[in-house]
Structures are given as C-alpha cells and as structure tokens.
TrEMBL record:
It is found in: Cell inner membrane. It comes from the Bacteria. It comes from Neoroseomonas lacus. PROSITE patterns: ABC_TRANSPORTER_1, ABC_TRANSPORTER_2. GO terms for biological process: peptide transport; transmembrane transport. It is a peripheral membrane protein. Its main location: membrane. It holds the Pfam family ABC_tran. The lineage of its organism: Bacteria, Pseudomonadati, Pseudomonadota, Alphaproteobacteria, Acetobacterales. Keywords: ATP-binding, Cell membrane, Membrane, Nucleotide-binding, Transport. This is ABC transporter ATP-binding protein. Gene3D superfamilies: P-loop containing nucleotide triphosphate hydrolases (3.40.50.300). The keyword GTP-binding does not apply. Residues 1-255 form the ABC transporter domain.
Length: 325
C-alpha cells in the first residue's frame, strides 16, 4: 500500500476574474520512506498542492473541484475539520515556507513545541519538556535544554528552521511535507538542513515531500521527482532519470539553470518568458509560448501526461520525437 495517493486533484480559487484552477489534475503517489521532490518555478502550484493535501487552504476562496487524497489507506478528501486535525501532526506534518512567520514571536520555542505535542498526546509537563528537548537535540540545536526558553528572535534563521522541523517531527509523522525548507537560508545551512531531513527519513522511515524551485536540492535529496508547470504535472521520473534524460522541454530548461548548492552564484535564467497566471493561461500546452520546440498544433489541446518508459512520464506532444536516440 502506498503511504499517499493523490489522484486527479484540482483546486480552484474564486478570484476577481472568476474561478481559476490553481492546480489541475495532479496525480502522484508516495511510498513509506520515500523522498519525493516537487519542483517548478514560483507560481507553478507546489504550495497549493501541499496545502490541499493538508486541507489548510481557506474555503472559500479555495475549493477542491475534483480528485481525492488517500493517506495510509484513509480517504482524506471530505473529512471534517475535526477529523483532519487528528491527521495533521501524527499523520502528515508540514514545514512551511517562511520560518519567522510560522513561529509565534511572543511564545518561547519550548512552549510552542510542547503545545504541538500536547495537542495530540496526554503527557505531564515534565514529559512534554523532556520530549521537546529531545526533539531540539535531534535537529541539531546545541544546549537544547537551555535554548528551550528562548524566543524566536533570539535564534538565527537556520536555528529557527530547525525549530520548525522539530515542531513538525514532534508527533512522529508518517509523512513530512517540507515546503521550500531552505530557500531563506545560506548555502551551508541549506546543505545541513537537507542532510538532517535525509537522516530523519532514515531514522524514522517517514515519507518526505520536498518542495523546491531548485534542481540542486532535488539532486541532493529526492528519490523521485515531480515537475510542475502552471498548475499541472508535466514530468515525473526517478531522480537519476530526470537528470540523465529529461523528456519535457521545460524540465530541460530547469536543468540548464541549476544553481549550485555549494557556491552562492546568482541564478541563471535559461528559460525565456514568464509563467502565465492562472487566469491568463494560453490554450493547449501551457508551456507552448515559452517553448523553443512548440508547433502550432501544440496550442490545440493540453498534452496528457504519458508514460514513455517505466516510471517515467511526460506531458509533451513532441517528447518521443525530441528524445535523444
Ligand atoms: N489564495 C489564493 N487566491 C487566489 N490564487 C491563489 C491563492 N493562493 C495561490 N494562488 C495561485 O495559485 C497558483 C499556484 O501558487 P503556489 O502553489 O503558491 O505556487 P508555488 O508554491 O509553486 O510557488 C499561483 O498562480 C497563485 O497565484
Ligand atoms: Mg510555494
């Protein structure tokens, strides 16, 4: 059984221009202990996918227009808020994009970690404290018992990110979703946080979804990769395959602008043009207007995600024709 199955997931937002699909027909699955990378430019639908799985989007304006999420054999789509609260924490836990906005500045980090644990487990104050110290220790915060009473502003960006990870792991989740967990951090800390996530996967056997716009992060961590563009999955493959023989012109473009994890070089912009907003998507292939290989026929229909070799799928009418022999 898969840990997570996402099938045909479509999330719409009501906007001034009417209802638009932020994500559309998103399908993938994840096994226990597997690290899935979701990659794509800013605005491609990565966070909306994660927040739909967690059922954390405000409804309205958001609405799950189609599809479903199954976690550990249980259908999550349609569960009540109360039932979903039981899943979040011990089932699925998430590290959010911006650590400073997710930690409450007026409570000590110890109180915040303990509150997270107390929401799901009946433990004495002393046990909660011990558990919080263990978690801080696990995520590599030195002198954890002393740092427990610190406030978020007394910690560095890297330490706050570690605290966020400690909170996310405090209830031993089966699935951890990390949404751009390293974007705000310098390269050395980034590498440390990614190593930490992989160690924790090894130790707890949890499934991990790492969301990033950085192919370098994917190369370092993921077993399998999902590439998103304008709300849709446009390629999926094991990590080595994505780097060896990417089939979608967009994925090839992303690979040409891989920023280095170890050198702090500015990002190269290799794909001309910009991602279309949901209300202004072109007809047919959404990447068409930016694609060097687009034909007039590419605008006629949305290319379906097609399996081209075992475990490798891409959504491009010309994928086979353009594939290197
Ligand atoms: N609350 C919202 N209302 C309307 N549109 C939204 C909302 N949140 C996200 N979107 C739209 O959904 C699309 C995907 O956004 P998002 O998932 O945040 O992208 P990513 O995480 O890949 O950068 C974007 O076009 C964004 O404008
Ligand atoms: Mg995002």
């Amino acid at each position: 059984m898969n840990l997570l199955d996402v099938s045909g997931l479509t999330t719409a937002f009501m906007t001034g221009r009417g209802e638009v699909n932020a994500i559309e027909d998103v399908s993938f699955s994840l096994k226990e202990g597997e690290i899935l990378g979701i990659v794509g430019e800013s605005g491609s639908g990565k966070s909306v996918t994660a927040l739909t799985i967690m059922d954390l989007l405000p409804k309205p304006p958001a609405r799950v227009a189609a599809g479903e999420v199954t976690f550990n054999g249980e259908r999550l789509t349609g569960l009540s808020d109360r039932q979903m609260q039981q899943v979040r924490g011990p089932g699925i836990s998430m590290i959010f994009q911006e650590p400073m906005t997710s930690l409450n500045p007026v409570f000590s980090i110890g109180d915040q970690i303990m509150e997270t644990i107390a929401a799901h487990e009946r433990l004495s104050q002393a046990d909660l404290r011990r558990r919080a110290i263990t978690m801080l220790d696990k995520v590599g915060i030195p002198s954890a018992s002393r740092r427990l009473d610190d406030y978020p502003h007394q910690m560095s960006g890297g330490q706050r990110q570690r605290v966020m990870i400690a909170m996310a792991l405090a209830c031993n989740p089966k699935l951890l979703i990390a949404d751009e967990p390293t974007t705000a951090l310098d390269v050395t800390i980034q590498a440390q946080i990614l190593d930490l996530l992989m160690d924790l996967r090894d130790e707890f056997g949890m499934g991990v979804i790492i969301i990033t716009h950085n192919m370098g992060v994917i190369a370092e961590t993921a077993d399998r990769v999902l590439v998103m563009y304008a709300g849709r999955v446009i390629e999926e493959a094991p990590v080595a395959t994505i780097f060896d023989r990417p089939m979608h012109p967009y994925t090839r473009g992303l690979l040409e602008c891989v920023p280095s994890l170890t050198e702090d070089k500015p990002r190269l912009v290799a794909i001309p043009g910009t991602l279309p907003e949901p209300a202004r998507r072109p007809p047919g292939c959404r990447f068409g207007p930016r694609c060097a290989h687009a034909l007039p026929s590419c605008a006629a229909a949305i290319p379906p995600l097609e399996t081209l070799e075992p475990a490798h799928a891409a959504a491009c009418f010309r994928a086979k024709e353009l594939a290197p022999a």
